[in-house]
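Quick one:
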Amino acid sequence: MDTIIEGLKKGLISIFSLDKEVLGITIFTLKVTGSATLISIAIALPLSFFLTLRDFIGKRFIISLANLGMGLPPTVVGLWVSLMLWRSGPFGRLHIMYTPTAMVIAQTAISAPIILALSTAALQQIDKKLRWHIIALGTSPLQMLLLMLKEARYSLLAAIMAGFGGSISEVGASMMVGGNIQGYTRVLTTAIVLETSKGHFDIALALSFVLMLLAYAATLWLTFIQQRRYKNVYY
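Output:
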């Protein structure tokens, strides 16, 4: 119990004193995870609209792969990304192994299937009759997409939150493709693993509190956006 209290103290001190190393790791974590989440949204949302609006051979197979990706172990993602980016791999000539770029790629591979699967499920819940009614009104394809986006926006925000959570909490892939290099590719999760392996449980706990606070702050912001429609329910 004393270790937990000491870890909480160090975590709060690190936050309020703006500890240089912790602050640097936290900002880098946000950059990597934020970039991966935005790229995942750019990939997953258009594909989820396509899967919702089009019927073709193999559609269910693609959706099943996305659903599989929701439970794919990060270490497996890290292994495949490492094989692709290794010197002898297909993209080895890019020399991005053990760089922040490699970490963004790995985290995107983790969060994109989550956002794709959940957003596709959300869009498919929209009544087909509503889509037909929208088409009958003579709307353009872009207007139809915007109306569908508005209709399913709360579920889509939940999908984004899940994708962000999957990225910021993973450690295996980041360790494998980033190398946990101090001041360059070290994120909060890999720093926690390192300090735990060294027996510095108080520091690891402090970093874990910072990570949880960061994840909660981002999720809280998205939750407020998602739940704004209920603000007048009790008034």
